[in-house]
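Private note to self, pasted from the team thread so I don't lose it. Backbone tokens:
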């Protein structure tokens, strides 16, 4: 294994969705079977470690591609000293073309580039938030995809699924706000691929709630899922709730 020879294609492969790695390696290896097998071993070991990461690996410090490369390489070497894991890796290499992770991998040293069209949809969602804080649900109604599998969860009731239930939940939420404004929106995380993107945000708002004549300031943690449908990005899921600070175990009981 030559780290200098394999580091660049390994890094490029990691940056791609798992479904695109096999075609990429076909071109990157130029028929070099040894290089292809080495890269597949590194990628499989990386994926396995991501599925069950040891607690001590978690860090707020970004890891460089080189450190990741060398770390995964060491894991591959150690794996073959452990028969059960070696068999697992061998099976993974054989079926790598059809191997899929159950969730999109996330890495602190890889930044997801948000396309301009998606940024426009995100900006549209912030305007939709401003509207609903003033009793108008039309912004979100226009941004949500017109499908039976869309979902919406907000602090005022259970999840709604499908166009009719989502619109009902939007109307219910809009009725509880008036004279509102968006104070700020913090982007916590974004990850996904060319078709599906998950966005995690903290929304900070100000509005009159219910029948109160007084303004209140409040925050919500929000997860939004966008899907590219045609040339536009549409909301297919949104979940917002007011839990933005630590809570005791008893809070699960509604206390």
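Design output:
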């Amino acid at each position: 294994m030559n780290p200098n020879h394999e580091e660049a294609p390994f890094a490029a492969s990691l940056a791609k969705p798992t479904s695109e790695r096999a075609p990429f390696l076909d071109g990157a290896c130029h028929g070099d079977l040894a290089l292809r097998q080495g890269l597949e071993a590194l990628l499989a070991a990386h994926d396995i470690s991501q599925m069950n990461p040891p607690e001590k690996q978690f860090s707020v410090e970004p890891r460089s591609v080189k450190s990741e490369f060398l770390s995964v390489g060491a894991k591959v070497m150690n794996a073959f000293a452990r028969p059960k894991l070696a068999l697992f890796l061998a099976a993974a290499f054989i079926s790598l073309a059809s191997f899929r992770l159950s969730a999109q991998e996330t890495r602190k040293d890889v930044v997801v580039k948000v396309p301009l069209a998606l940024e426009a949809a995100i900006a549209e969602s912030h305007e939709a938030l401003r509207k609903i804080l003033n009793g108008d649900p039309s912004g979100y109604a226009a941004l949500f995809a017109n499908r039976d599998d869309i979902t919406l969860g907000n602090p005022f009731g259970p999840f709604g699924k499908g166009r009719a239930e989502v619109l009902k939940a939007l109307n219910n939420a809009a009725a509880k706000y008036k004279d509102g404004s968006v104070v700020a929106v913090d982007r916590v995380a974004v990850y996904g691929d060319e078709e599906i993107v998950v966005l995690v945000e903290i929304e900070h708002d100000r509005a009159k709630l219910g029948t109160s004549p007084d303004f209140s300031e409040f925050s919500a943690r929000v997860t939004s899922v966008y899907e590219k449908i045609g040339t536009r990005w549409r909301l297919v899921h949104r979940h917002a709730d007011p839990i933005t600070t630590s809570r005791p175990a008893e809070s699960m009981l509604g206390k």
